[in-house]
Amino acid sequence: MNVLLTGGAGYIGSHTYLALIVYGLKPVILDDFSNSSPTVLERLELISHKPVVCELGNVADLPFVEAVIQRHKIQAVIHFAGSKAVGESVALPLRYYDNNVVGMTRLLQAMEKTGCRTLVFSSSATVYGDPAKVPITEIFPRSHTNPYGHTKLVIEDMLYALQAADSSWKMAVLRYFNPVGAHPSGLIGEDPQGPPNNLMPYIAQVAVQQRPILNVYGNDYPTPDGTGVRDYIHVQDLAQGHIAALQALTSHGILTVNLGTGRGYSVLEVVKAFERASGKSVPYQFMPRRAGDVAQCYASTALAKQLLGWEAQLDLDSMCADAWRWQKGSGNVSGSAW
Ligand code: WQD
């Protein structure tokens, strides 16, 4: 099966690319490198020992995407391309509605025109807003606390409406919880541009002394140790979830599942796990809560297991060990001298 990965040079996309190769599928990357580096393609070739097929361009360029789908006889699309920084979305909402919602619309139009109607969409647990309880199931109410989360919610509704209007569409909406870790080779991983917004890459940069100290945002939450609890999932498990979704689409019109581990860890538990994995100290200080953060967010994994036959395999220690190998090895793909 020929599969188009929009944003395939990015963090989740590149790891899914490798999983597809191992599974014997034929991925094609479409990326404009606005939030990734072409160096990732060299690393993917090094790891897979196969040439990478990449089309340089923007997913909103309708004629370009149509041509790519036809040129490569694309049978399914996994849509990773989009902006994903919560704080940035509050400052630049128009950029997020343009990149994410208009980009998705143009992609769907190109798919419709070329008769390619199988789609896997990267959604996010952020559509659950501040959940009333945990674990979170897929029927929990959705809400948004920022424009980024709103774009995910709007796109989900677009997909539901399109599939209801035309049942020939087969779609999987995958709600990621907190993706972390890196490929075991240490050659690809999460490569934030500028100071990381997310916890794991920030901890990793403190461990290598690229940053002096970790700010722990809030220690007065109603959680066991007062710090925020999240469902961290290894990016390798996440990649496998996409393959399971593609396989499930032969028998479903549209499915929506959580991709998480079903286990929540606090900030301090992650810090301790990373210190164990790296053998390095991660100094931290408590700071006031971060606007928009929720106390706890972790998944019910029952539906993913039922519909996809998939569940996460890797634990927090593996996530930290792989994140550490990536950080101490290259840690980035832009300026690294490897
Ligand atoms: C995790 C915990 C913070 C940084 C976001 C998006 C979500 C997805 C993942 C895209 C929280 C605490 C963090 C730091 C800290 N993104 N923290 N110090 O906010 O759960 O989810 O990223 O798909 O959609 O909403 O992830 O890693 O930013 O925060 O104390 O320097 O770590 O308060 O409790 P989050 P995160």
H/I helix tally: 11
Which hetero ligands occur in this complex? UDP-4-deoxy-4-formamido-beta-L-arabinopyranose
Class based on secondary structure composition and strand pairing = alpha/beta
Ranges where pLDDT stays below 50 over 5 or more residues in a row are: none
Under CATH at level 1, the class of the domain at 2-181 and 231-260 stands as Alpha Beta
Total strands: 14
In CATH terms, the superfamily of the domain at 2-181 and 231-260 is: NAD(P)-binding Rossmann-like Domain
**Run of helices and strands:** EHEHEHEHHEHEEHEEEHEEHEEHH
CATH fold-level topology of the domain at 2-181 and 231-260: Rossmann fold
Round the Cα radius of gyration to an integer and report it.
19 Å
Largest sheet: 7 strands, parallel
Specify the CATH architecture of the domain at 2-181 and 231-260: 3-Layer(aba) Sandwich
Which overall shape is indicated by the principal axes computed on the Cα atoms? globular
Please estimate the helix content.
40-55%
CA distance, first residue to last residue: 34 Å
The percent range for strand residues is 15-25%
